[in-house]
Structure formats: structure tokens, C-alpha cells
Amino acid sequence: MTNNQSTSTPKLASGLEIGSVAEQYMAEGQYKAALEKFQGSLGVLVPLLSSEPKGRRRDLLHQQIQLWLVQAENTKSLLSLTDMNGANIAEAKEH
């Protein structure tokens, strides 16, 4: 393992762990926390993808990033809808 690979491996493990925690938050319905974790994970993993050599590990990392990008966008949309519904309920109570 080269020096570059050994220094990126802990970051890779950390990014994957953060993403796994995000999935757990999603399963528990804690969407704001999940979104924060997805963003943190992607912030670590996306830069690593460009330095990852071609091969199975890079392909798997790319697939995981794509999955978490979609989940982050879906979570963001869900939170946006929740905020809009909350605003509509508050407005209805005022009238």
C-alpha cells in the first residue's frame, strides 16, 4: 500500500461510517440529523473518489456515493415539504 493509499483509507472508512449513521437516522425518522450526516459523508467521500484508482473498490465507492446523493436529495425534499406543511398549519391557526 502506498503512502497516499494509507492516508486516504482512514478518511474513506470515516466517510463510510458517517454515511452509515445517516442511514440509521433516516430509519429512525430523524431527517435533519440524517441530512447533516449525508452531507458530511459526501463531503469526505466525493473528493476521495477522484484519487481512487480504477477498479472494483472505486466502482463500489461511486455506487455508494450515488446512492447517498439520492438519499440526501430525497431527505432535503422531505424536510422542505415538512417545513411548508408546518408553515401552512401555523398560518391556518392564525386565521
UniProtKB/TrEMBL annotation:
InterPro entries tied to this protein: MIT_dom, MIT_dom_sf
All copies of domain MIT, residue ranges: 12-76
UniProt-listed SUPFAM superfamilies: MIT domain
Domain of life: Eukaryota
Protein name (database record): (California timema) hypothetical protein
Lineage: Eukaryota, Metazoa, Ecdysozoa, Arthropoda, Hexapoda
